[in-house]
Amino acid sequence: MSSRHRLLEIAQVFLKLGTISMGGPAAHIALMEDEFVVRRRWISRDRFLDLLGATNLIPGPNSTEMAISLGFIRGGWGGWFVAGAAFVLPAVSITAICAWLYVRTGTLPQATRWWLGISPAAIAVIALAVWRLMRTAVKSYRQAMIGAAVAAAAFAGVSEIAALFLGGAIGMLWLRRAIPRITTGLTMVTWLLLSGVAVVAAAVTTADAPVRLWDLGTVFLKVGSVLYGGGYVLVAFLEGALVRDRGWLTERQLLDAIAVGQFTPGPVLSTATFIGYVLAGLPGAIVATVGIFLPSFCFVAGLQAVLPWVRKGVWTAAFLDAVNVAAIGLMIAVTIRLSLGFTDWRQWLIAVAALAAGAFFKLHSAWLIVGGAIGGAWLL
Questions:
Q1: Residue 30's pLDDT is what?
Q2: Measured between alpha carbons, how far is 163 from 176 in angstroms, rounded to an integer?
């Protein structure tokens, strides 16, 4: 098969997967395993598992990075680009259309009630994801304390990036027993608070400052470069960077953006497209989208050289364990902070109903968002 035909094949299959991949990263990866290991036999199952383990050690959306890696294996550097771009294109396009509609209808009385119902449903979706991730990531009391310490630090106002990396570094040492057993969650919180002061001071800007494309791109490039823990951790970073630090978005706008990202197929990081459009129109959508996905392409390119070392490193494994629970701590903090913004008991009712529907009936997050919108139109 010629290089051109191979790239066309890669584009076709990843456009299809990007269009039908509802259900989050785990569902996306399951679709890829069925498509490329079972049906097309592009790679062996062992190599597929090697790639999956490696992408868990680098920042960014795992399913997107798996798509980029599989494209590289099939089509070299051309496949590296085509697979990633094709996989995110459907989600980005649908999200951009939703953002265009939102800007034109989101403030109208008849649309406001829908969006007010979507916000608590989005909180329920995040809470359910936190619970599922906790059950997988927290394997010991040490990991539980790392997550609790990071959650407390983030809730107290420490920079999310500082909390994540310090939680990962200190947690790695603690999990590897390289620091004394006397270290406790309370001590970790103190360290995080002291170390984060300079980062917070540098990050805070004047609220209501005009949104420049350069600044917007820098924010999303930074988030995409440190986004451990999956797409849901994006909520914590954006709430800190865009709502609290810069005042570019309100909490309601952020929840609306997350809800749209949940409802559309593909990676939840397409939320960046929605936010970029709301803040700076189509140029903002393009800049935010490129900014948040570009690091994943770079990390996957670098991963090809270091993969053998990463798989065998006990310290990198410990760092990953600590970062995973630190990311969950960030999600807990932002979930609490955003839920405190609900002032109407009917919003709490929608949130509880969505939480129960997701927990007991295993409804897809998209249906929870639809139910929240209907509940908002009916109750609010």
A1: 76
A2: 19
